[in-house]
Amino acid sequence: MLGPVETRSVSPVFVGRADELDTLNDALARAAAGEPQALLLGGEAGVGKTRLVEEFATAACRRGAVVALGGCVEIGADGLPFAPFSTALRTLRRALPDALADAAAGQEEELARLLPELGEATPTRATGRHDEEGVARLFELTARLLERVAADRTVVVALEDLHWADASTRHLLSYLLRTLRTGRLVVLATYRSDDIHRRHPLRPLLAELDRLRTVRRLELARFNRDEVGRQIAGILATEPDPTQVDDIFERSDGNAFFVEELAVAAHEGCCTGLTDSLRDLLLVRVEALPETAQRVARIVAEGGSTVEYRLLAAVARLAEDDLIEALRATVNANILTAAPGGDGYRFRHSLVREAVADDLLPGERSRLNRRYAEALEADPALVPADERVMRLASYWYHAHDAAKALPAVLDASVAARRRHAYSEQLRLLERAMELWDTAPEDICSALRPVDYAEGYPPCGGDPATTPLRYLDLMAEAAVAGRLCGERERSLKITKRALHLLEDEDEPQRAAWFWTQRSRLIQAQARGDGWKELATAQELVRGLPPSEVHAEVLGSVAAWLMTNEPGPEALSAAERAVEYAHMVGAREIELNARLTLGGLTVDAGDTETGLAQMADVKQRALDLCIPVVAGRAYVNLPAQLESVGRSREAVSLLEEGAVYTSKFGLLESEAWVWANLAQSLYPLGRWDEATEAAQRVIRRGRGAESQGAVAIFLAQIALCRGDLTEAAHQLATARAHFGAHDTTPQHTIPPAVIALGMAAAKGRLLDARTELGRTLDAGLPPGTQCYGWPLLLTAATAEADARTLPAGAPGRADALARIVDMAKKLTTGAPVWLAHDAWVRAELDRARREDTPDIWSEVVIAFEPLERPYDLARVRYRLAAALLSDGGDDERNRATELLRLAGAVAEHLGARPLADAVALLAQRARLTLSGAPRRTPAPADPVEALGLTSRERDVLHLVSVGRTNRQIAEELFISPKTASVHVSNILGKLGVSGRGEAAAVAHRLGLFPPVTGATGT
Description:
By secondary structure, this protein is mainly alpha-helical. The protein has 50 helices and ten strands.
């Protein structure tokens, strides 16, 4: 459009920055080797960030890399959602059309939220109600897209001006930098460090990224005097006068942009610029322009980061020749420059734009925004389609015209929602609520919920004719806040809405807001949310079916399923299904059916419940409702595992891992991997299970799934004899679950681990305390998959300590509690029938009444169940019982049982069981032929503990409850000497008291007549 222009004030010489450029080039080399790189480049405005990025981009292109630049776009004070990522992806599409199309294949509708050229984004209503995982899915698909594009080539994605970034852009960048693992990719982001004040929204993100070892942060310093001199020489194409360098260096303080401005001002004779404020200096050359050119500069300053030529022409209302002459003057003066796309103009530096914009009068500013808005309304094609709605809303809002601004802001909020830019949607909705009271009544009454609000479902009346209400905006804002993580703001909105509803007869709307509060309170760990749900349930009681009624009942059923499963939960789920079906709320119905299926399984009708859940999964897949399908891939395998059908669960979970990954369902994917770990464990595939658990940890998604895998890892550590690791994982799990979480699935498994650890350390009283605390809280219906392991661990602890005198007091009560609870637990599946038999056998062992026949029944119960570790444990118990009878036939059978049990223990790395098998075989003088060879145990196990013969005698007496005085009398030594021996024994055994020492002696079977003990 314009011919060559003078660019004197842009230094033709790249000065300094050698260390920073070396760091960037090193990152490029690392990325080319397959190690993705992330860098943050900060510095004050004008220090030279953009110039450094340009030099690096040029060098990267020379080395064969593809460079995609994207800048955060500022319109007034509003950043466009995902603007830098959209721009960068658009550049990649132009440079690598085939590669990007292949990488996006199958996910075009989702990725179109960032890059509309890929297709039309699926509207929320097409897939049901608000998508809980929409943001996470979009972020995951974007990260995967970049990894795939960068799989075979080096790609540099440079995002500039993060200080203007919208919240959605910040969240996406954070996710990208935390999750990039593969690909030849460099992500470089720049920001103004002097703009990051204490409350700036970028500040928390920078602090978060600083903690990532994979992110490098660079801070550009100002130039020193020598560098300023070299820069001035490059600008003036001659060696400058030293005095002039001193003056400019002192005035600019080494800021590269101010050096340029001062050097040009001095060269052109504007010496007064050296004494004016820097802001005035920036305006000197603007004010030196012809009046028409100044007017054009003011128009561009208010239009945003970049203003398209046709839009500028419509707003300026100048003859085309006059406009072009004005533009030529601003470009020649290096005030404006052509935008990268060649279709518009922007200020050469944002500092100049800010200075010009700040110089506008209030009335002038609103008048310019009105002109922009009117021009855009008259011809929407003046700006790119994906920016149009947001820019129109910003222009009308800053024009201070409520009648025009309210509908435009609401349109923009819908556009933000469709892009999953919920932070921007919330900001726009809060702006709409601000405008509501000042907008004319006829404007408000013409607005319809069907066009702007999806949060609160239509209940009564035609949504196409019912006017939009202020409460509709509040409902939409509450949902947007929850989805973008601004839960405290959502809680304030719901509180305010419920206050407004106190004087209204609208129980359904109030119930909806109470349901939202319940979800928010649970998410914030401020309580269990039941009080709020109960209030909502009471409000809709007796009302005709509606979507709100169905949602309340579905939420109640889901809460009861995890907290208090039973008949009330089943009834709520049945009514939720019925009501949702009646009003056509498809997603609510499918979710309620899934809950109903799970509760049916828990109630004992296993096949019916599993069939219901499988049907929901298939319908969700057929109807393409990923969120429901993802939940089905979590809950259905969990129910299969709860009835011992681990192999079926694993097959479904492996299928679910692929599905949830494909659709970016991050929370569901985390639960799929967590459940996979739990289902691989009983099958004896412990290494695979551990890897599945590590996937959850690496992704870092969801406190509850993180807690679940921590419990699993604690269980593995306990089975392998690593009590330190078990304690660490138990503490991690409890931290993830939090103090307010009382759901059985988050309280009983940690109790099982704690009880098992106490038993392994010989702390029987601690084990009893843990059991009592858990049983006092109760084992609700449907918790048999947690209850049976709890009772088994407690019964085993009592049996292992059966000869300890210290354990005798309270033993009868402990056994009675276990027996009583075992009678109440469901045994509707073969696995729990087998556990019932096992618990009863351990109780018999605790009473010294177990026999080979009793243990044979347990072994027979476990043999068809594909649970190798459990089978090995009960085989060991049967072998011990057989050896107590002492016949040759029994010895032969015991030998085979121990060989099989030992082989499993060795394969799994279950050291306590393997040691117990080896010790029993040694004491019975059995040769386990065919068993994996182990390091031979010492002939005397006491020697392995490092005890002297005298300490052995003392420990024997301690184990049968003797005091120091009694030990002294029996061994003919002084009580003081006995005390010294006891102290030495405690140190060698690594225990803290006599009771623990006795427990170790009994557990390891160090002294007759103990016939077997194990900590398994």
